[in-house]
Hints:
Number of domains: 1
Low-confidence stretches: 1-17
Strand content: over 45%
Distance between the termini: 13 Å
Helix content: under 10%
Oligomer: single chain
Amino acid sequence: MVRLAIVSLLGALPFVVGASRVESAELTLEVSATDASFRVTDRRTGRTWESEPNYPHMPQNLAVTGCEAVDREIRLTMTASGGRNLLATFRLEPEPGEMTVTFDTGWR
């Protein structure tokens, strides 16, 4: 399992509808069930950061197979050709204004 803290996000880019959404007092997080892009809005300032849809570094053989919001998390499941699974968990942390993303390649 790899745990990443999102330090810098990209500015305003198009966002795919059909996203799962979770909120804290400080942040709103949306993750697209179509292309794994995500958007974070700071509710205190109204500023929004968005990832790039169809990340250039994301393997083309990776397909989103599920997306669900549970409490302060959004769990995104993906499958690569050949059947390898990946679980990406986007989580709004208890610390004000913080979010993490965890990748688990051993997920079944």
